[in-house]
Amino acid sequence: MLRYFTHPVTHFAQNCSIVYDDGTLQAAIIDPGGDIDRLLAAIAGKGLKLEQIWLTHAHIDHAGGTAALAQRLQLPIIGPHPADQFWIDALPQQGAMFGFPAVDAFQPTRWLQDGDTVELAGHVLHVRHCPGHTPGHVVFHSPEMGRAFVGDVLFAGSIGRTDFPQGDHATLIASITQRLWPMGDETVFIPGHGPESTFGAERKTNPYVRGT
């Protein structure tokens, strides 16, 4: 069975999620923004074997630890969509601006496109390209778990910022209504910050997307 746990990292309290198979203990990490030693300790505490890095987008709080972690464990970096290349290239500058330890840019092992899949221990998650917060943002959906890892597209009671370079409010709303809502009201989503919620709850109560 596929399981996960979430570990907030850095002063941005970014929700880094670790997805794993409870039989083989094979694991993938979603958005290792930093605090790599703490993340590895949490992973080791569960006896997991970390095999992949999956990225929703390339803002510093989500991707800041990626290069160091990939180099340390020789892990493939999967995602995001290639439209976020300029954010990856700017990671060293982002890190300096926001007080992170030295951060390196990187080259993803595999870029992701809308409709792609990622696989862990025989479990398949579906990839949706959801631009608006960043142009290359992707979301990972596991119908098996009834979970979606949505990065900074949607939050409990809010939505992602669109005032960064190449952000766009209308595009973000379209991503939410056209790409997330069809996953089903009962789907639980894990946002990049803050508590989990369901798509159904946000459709009813979120002031930014209520009634959509």
Q: What is the count of β-strands?
A: 13
* Total number of helices: 7
CATH level-4 homologous superfamily:
Ribonuclease Z/Hydroxyacylglutathione hydrolase-like
CA(first)-CA(last) distance: 33 Å
The CATH architecture comes to 4-Layer Sandwich
Q: Helix/strand/pairing class, anyone?
A: alpha+beta
Q: Sum up the overall morphology in one term.
A: globular
Strand order of the largest sheet: 6-7-8-9-12-13
Largest sheet: 6 strands, mixed
Overall radius of gyration: 16 Å
What's the CATH class, please? Alpha Beta
Order of helices and strands: EEEHEHHEHHEEEEEEHEEH
Protein name: MBL fold metallo-hydrolase
Cofactor: Zn(2+)
GO molecular function: hydrolase activity; metal ion binding
InterPro entries: MBL_Glyoxalase_II (IPR051453), Metallo-B-lactamas (IPR001279), RibonucZ/Hydroxyglut_hydro (IPR036866)
Task: Characterize the structure shown.
The chain is α+β, with helices and mostly antiparallel strands and 212 residues long. It has a single domain, classed as Metallo-beta-lactamase, Chain A (4-Layer Sandwich). It has seven helices and 13 strands. A six-stranded mixed beta sheet has the order 6-7-8-9-12-13. Strand 7 and strand 8 form a beta hairpin. The longest helix is centred in the C-terminal third of the chain and has 12 residues. It is globular. The mean pLDDT is 97.
